[in-house]
Amino acid sequence: MTAFDNHRISAAAGRPPRRVLIAVIAATITAAVLAAITPWPRGFQGTPTGDAELMTELEGALGSQHWQHVSAARIDGDGVTFAGTGADEHTEFEVGSITKTFTAALFAEAIDRGEVKADTRLGEVWPNLEGKVAEVTLESIAMQRSGLPSQEPAPSFSDGVMSVLSNYLHTDPYRGDPGDIVASLNDVDVGEPEPEYSNYGFAVLGQALAEVAGKDYSELVRDRLTEPLGMKETFVPDSADGLSHGFTASGLPAAPWTLGGSAPAGAIRSTTHDLSIWLRAVSDGTAPGAEAAEPRADFEDDRIGWAWFTTTHDGSTITWHNGGTGGFRSYLGFDRETGDGIVVLNDSANDVDAAATLIGTASADEGSTKGESS
User: Fold this and answer.
1) Distance between CA atoms of residues 302 and 353, nearest Å
2) What per-residue confidence (pLDDT) applies to 364?
3) Phi, then psi, of 197 in degrees rounded to 5
4) Digit-coded pLDDT (tens) for 30-69
5) What are the structural domain ranges in the chain?
6) DSSP readout, 213-249?
7) Which of 127, 106, 126, 104 shows the shortest CA–CA distance to 115?
8) Which DSSP symbol is given to 348?
9) Mean pLDDT within 328-356
10) CA gap 332, 101 in Å, rounded
11) In sequence order, what DSSP letters do the residues of 32-100 get, joined into one string?
12) What's the distance, CA 154 to chain centroid?
């Protein structure tokens, strides 16, 4: 605004211009409408289930947000404790990028089966690829340092527009099918092989593993991971029909995400019952592809294996991954030495990473109690 404009407004004090009045009225109406349709922040909704003490600890760790429903599992040695509100250990949630730990396990399994090697290049999986992208290795993708972009390139202009609009419509932004993911490699720009989190990279990794195995990604997850471990409540959806939806951070409904060809980056749906099985089997090395969790390189302030992050803090070394879709957030992690762990699934877009502070607290409390009584 110029000095002349400032003078005009000052001279008209008490009589704001018509356009200012219109703007103020419009802003007031907009604020009133948003206030009417946006729920106010409040605690978890629904009937409490499972262990009341764990739920109280979880609420304390996560703080005050606009939560909806939550389910948690704490692993303590050979025991598992479940808790929740409006949900229990068999309630289904989208787990988001925790899916990447399954894709990483499939990578480790494919190596064990002789289908690929750690240094297998994309050009060996799809021989028609040329240039820099053909030289990208599967391990570089699994360790989030492939140079591939962070997000899937839009298959078409209209898909690109719809992906942008999805942020406002709270719908699934991932438009491409597996064929689109593969086709996009012909035109993608590959950057430097530096640590950078890439959903697109894991979509490519999952589709590469499906290609060499001659199966769909969902079949690989079922046949090689969930069935052997008895995880009957874990699956990769093939459509959004019949799936439960989550909520935005402010409490508005958000459509389910199935991610299409990007499913290997975040489409799995599961329960805390099943993810407690997954966490324990990865932790004790009995899960197919459990070696994926072994840290291999630095990643910012953490270490990274294949998908899994490892963080050392206050004397504990926690291996973990989190996840997020339009209406869900998730976290699972375990102490590498004790095997103690936590799983939290939540159907709102509010992060639950703070649940990491609960890993090992049950053992610590028990030890403190034993010390007092001896």
Assistant:
1) 15
2) 52
3) -65, 130
4) 444 444 445 555 678 889 999 999 999 999 999 878 788 9
5) 3-37, 52-116+211-370
6) HTS-HHHHHIIIIIHHHT-TT-B--SSSTTPPPEE-T
7) 106
8) B
9) 96
10) 10
11) HHHHHHSPPP----S-EEE-HHHHHHHHHHH-SS----EEEEEEETTEEEEEEES--TT--EE-GGGHH
12) 21
Q: Which fold has domain 52-116+211-370?
A: Beta-lactamase (3.40.710)
Model confidence pLDDT, tens digit, residues 190-247: 999 999 999 999 999 999 999 999 999 999 999 999 999 999 999 999 999 999 999 9
Paired tokens of 199: 């959903």
Place of tokens 């009584």: 373
pLDDT at 162: 64
Q: What one-character-per-residue DSSP string does 166-198 give?
A: HHHHT-------HHHHHHHTTTPPP--S-----
18: CB partners within 8 A, 6+ apart: none
pTM as predicted? 0.85
Q: Which neighbouring-strand residues pair with 324?
A: 329
Candidates 167, 107, 110; CA nearest to 143 is 107
User: If 0-12 CB within 10 Å is exposed, 13-18 middle and 19+ buried, where does residue 285 land?
Assistant: exposed
Q: Which two tokens stand for residue 75?
A: 């692993």
pLDDT tens for residues 69-99?
A: 999 999 998 899 999 999 999 999 999 999 9
**Closest to 95 (Cα-Cα) out of 231, 219, 204:** 231
Q: 81, 344 in Cβ contact below 8 A? A: no
| Predicted pLDDT at 316 | 86
The residue type of 348 is: S
Number of residues that make up the chain: 374
Which is nearest to 201 in space by CA: 143, 259, 268? Answer: 143
Contact 255, 171 (CB under 8 A): yes
Q: Using one digit for the tens of pLDDT, what is the confidence trace for 253-271?
A: 999 999 999 999 999 999 9
Q: How far is CA 108 from the centre of its chain?
A: 20
Judge whether 148 and 192 are in contact, CB under 8 Å.
no
